[in-house]
User: Which sequence fits this backbone?
C-alpha cells in the first residue's frame, strides 16, 4: 500500500510565536494577518492619523509583535507575510517622518530597503531613500531606470514635490 502524501496541517494562530498579533487583529492565517493589518493601517494613513510613535495603534502593536519575535524566528508563509507587513510599515513610516524628523525618515528608509529584498515589485521605497538623504540626482537616476507604470508616475510627483519644497533656487 502506498503512503498517502501528508496534507499540510491547518494553520493554528494559537501555536504561532506571533499569537499576540493574530489575536489583536482577529486574524486566522499569515495572509489574513497581513490583510487585516492593511485594512487597519490604511484608515490611519489616509486620514492622517498614522503615527509611528503611538504604541496604542493596532497596526503599531502588530509591528511590535513581529519585531519582538523576529523574522528569523518565523518560517514559510508566516515569515513571508510578516516581512511584507514590516516592509509596508517602514515604507509608510518614511513618508510620515519625512517632514517631521529627517533622521528618523532616513532610518526608516534604510530598514525598509533591508526588509524589502531585491525581488520586491515596489520601486518607490528606493526613491524615498534617495530623497530623505537629499540625493535628488540619485532619485532622478533611479526614476530613469524605473519600470513604466503607477510607481513611475508617483515617483515623478514625489521628485517634483521634493524640488518644490526642499530645494532652493
Assistant:
Amino acid at each position: 500500500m502506498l503512503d498517502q502524501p501528508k496534507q499540510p496541517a491547518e494553520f493554528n494562530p494559537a501555536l504561532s510565536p506571533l499569537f499576540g498579533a493574530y489575536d489583536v487583529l482577529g486574524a486566522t492565517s499569515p495572509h489574513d494577518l497581513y490583510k487585516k493589518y492593511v485594512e487597519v493601517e490604511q484608515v490611519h494613513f489616509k486620514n492622517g492619523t498614522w503615527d509611528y510613535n503611538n504604541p496604542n495603534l493596532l497596526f503599531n502593536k502588530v509591528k511590535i509583535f513581529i519585531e519582538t519575535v523576529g523574522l528569523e524566528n518565523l518560517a514559510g508563509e508566516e515569515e513571508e507575510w510578516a516581512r511584507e507587513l514590516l516592509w509596508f510599515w517602514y515604507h509608510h513610516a518614511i513618508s510620515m517622518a519625512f517632514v517631521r524628523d529627517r533622521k528618523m525618515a532616513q532610518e526608516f528608509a534604510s530598514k525598509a530597503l533591508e526588509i524589502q529584498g531585491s525581488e520586491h515589485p515596489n520601486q518607490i521605497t528606493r526613491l524615498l531613500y534617495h530623497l530623505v538623504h537629499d540625493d535628488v540626482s540619485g532619485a532622478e537616476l533611479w526614476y530613469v531606470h524605473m519600470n513604466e507604470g503607477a510607481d513611475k508616475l508617483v515617483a515623478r510627483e514625489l521628485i517634483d514635490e521634493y524640488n518644490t519644497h526642499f530645494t532652493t533656487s
